Amino acid sequence: MYLLEVLNPVARQRALESPFQPVARPESLDGKTVGLLWSGTHGGDVALKRAGEMLQGRFSGVTVNFYTGGNYPAPPHVVKQAAEECDVVIGATGD
Amino acid sequence: MIEVEKMGKPAAPIISGRFEGDAIASSRAFGMPELQFVVVPRIYRNITLEECVGQTEQAFDQIVATLTQNGAPTGRLGTADDGAPHNFEGDDRFDAVHRMNEEFIGRDWGDGFPLLPATREAVDELIAGTRLPADHVVCDVPPGFGVATVEKIAINAALAGARPEHMPVIIASVKALSEIGPHGGKSLLMSTSPNAPLLIVNGPIAKELGINARSALGPGRDNRINIVIGRAFSLCLRNIGYWYPNEMDMDTIGTTRKFVHCIAENEAASPWQPFHVDQGFGADENAVSLFITDGELDVQDQGNTTAEGLLKTLAYGATFGTMSLQSDDKAGGSERLILMPPDVARPVGNSGMSKQEAREFIHAHANGNLGKMIQYMPLEGEARVAENWKWLENLTEEQRLQITVSVMGSADNCYIVVVGADRAKTAVLPSGPSPATVGIDQYRPG
Questions:
Q1: Strand, helix or coil at B52?
Q2: Other Cβ atoms within 10 Å of B376 Cβ, number
Q3: What distance in Å separates the CA atoms of residue B290 and residue B139, rounded to the nearest whole number?
């Protein structure tokens, strides 16, 4: 019998030293401002706008704002603007 | 979208099915392992607009739930590797090493080839190859931003079969990746395109270690050191940078360039100063340069002997590829790494042309058909076109095909490194962002 101990090659990830928790959700989107954050990928704008329409159909008093920086991914100042001006934000991402 | 949550607002990222693993890995890498997201079946950019609408409607209840319901704990944080050693029992050492390989390769900690055992003794021997202590943090490695201590680098180097004298080059290479572009080229490494690092060593250490500068990019005995150092680096990128296929490396087809190679510049056969001197180092210093490449083309010359003839062949060959219209930079374009063999470099240099003049000549002649270069991205209804290119939207395809532009933004986007054996066959590699060059001597034993 031969016993072999091998050291672990996987490093700890910096971001997990102090992870963030998702923020608490509102119970309803009635009266909320919804941000649609488009990263510029083909078709994502159409998908987001359809989601916005459907949210306005299901909830009352929903305002929809559309954001894009014309680039991929959306530039930080556009992301910041969406977060500041809206109550919730939907984004199309993943290439 | 994590940035939105960090600013205190609920976010609902919509991702496609293939990217679910990527979303989970990214949520950990960027510090929000409990991030909720909405999954649709297909990538939006490759389906029709009707299909975009259809799959969004199908996912609507998910969108509402993601925005209005606090998610149940995912447990993703708890699955982080604890970093503990792994023990293997075998009938003999060979059997134990075989079992280690089954386990490690099964966890995707390797490159598919057999790994050597990173025992305490082997790792300590490698750590002695640098002046730095084992717990010294060299950098955080993209795209997953794992913490690269000297010991973690040494463990991965041991798995690759590296020797202690290779460690300074490996450490400098890892450091170089962290200095590439914004966040170490994070987006490029996570791309669906085959972006891969290439390492080029300059200085006396290349000869000392036996890093091949001739037919340097292939397999075999002559490239043994090239392969081992490149492999050690790529295992660091994998296990420290979390560059795991289909998690944070979302390449569509993949490339053998991801079996990273470390080559040397053929300084002895170059008519010009070495590349690391271009980058600000002294000729007697040792340095490694890291390029991110996106392809490779052999440009063969069958009889030119003049500088003009050789460089025109090279420049015309360098025009392949596509062109982005996203840049506000008027020139736009991308970069090219030119691995120029001595049989091209020497006639050019002997004609009196400096390396900078050769770069400018190549840039001036590497022109492509704009209509063909942008065909991959329909302009109609597409907002990914910078203001300075908007005028193209009013042209017909035939009109666009009449326009010729430089494939590189400027001569500064053309990098010449002399590599190769005898024969005028140049390798041109689309590359970018700009390479990072890091000194090696700072990591050598004191």
A1: helix
A2: 10
A3: 15
A82: nearest CA in chain B? B4
The pLDDT of residue B141 is 96
CB within 8 Å: A88 and B11: yes
Whole-number Å distance between alpha carbons of B172 and B289: 9
Residue B106 carries which DSSP code? H
SS3 labels along B108-165: CCCCCCCCCCCCHHHHHHHHCCCCCCCCCEEEEECCCCEEEEHHHHHHHHHHHCCCHH
Residue found under tokens 């990591």: B443
Helices marked H in chain A: 44-58, 76-85
CA B156 to CA B161: how far, in whole Å?
9
Q: How far apart are CA B214 and CA B235, in angstroms?
A: 25
ipTM: 0.92
Query: A48: which chain B residues are within 8 Å (Cβ-Cβ)?
Result: 14, 56
CB contact under 8 A, A11 and B91: no
Q: Is the pLDDT of residue B186 over 90?
A: no
Q: Find the mean pLDDT for residues B420-424.
A: 93
The whole-model pTM stands at 0.92
B338: exposed, middle or buried (Cβ count in 10 Å: 0-12, 13-18, 19+): buried
H helix or E strand, kind and range, residue B42: none
Å between A57 CA and nearest CA of chain B? 12
Our CA-based measurement puts residue B429 at a distance from the nearest CA of chain A, in whole angstroms, of: 23
Tell me: the pLDDT tens digits for B2-20?
889 999 999 999 988 788 8
Q: Which chain B residue has the Cα nearest residue A39?
A: B384
Which chain A residue's Cα is nearest to B243? A10
The Cα–Cα gap between A66 and A48 comes to: 9
> How are beta strands B38-40 and B11-16 bridged, if at all?
parallel
Nearest CA in chain A to B78: A16
Half-sphere exposure of B35 (CA within 13 A, CB side): 32
A26 touches chain B (CB under 8 A): yes
Q: Are A93 and B13 within 8 A, CB to CB?
A: yes
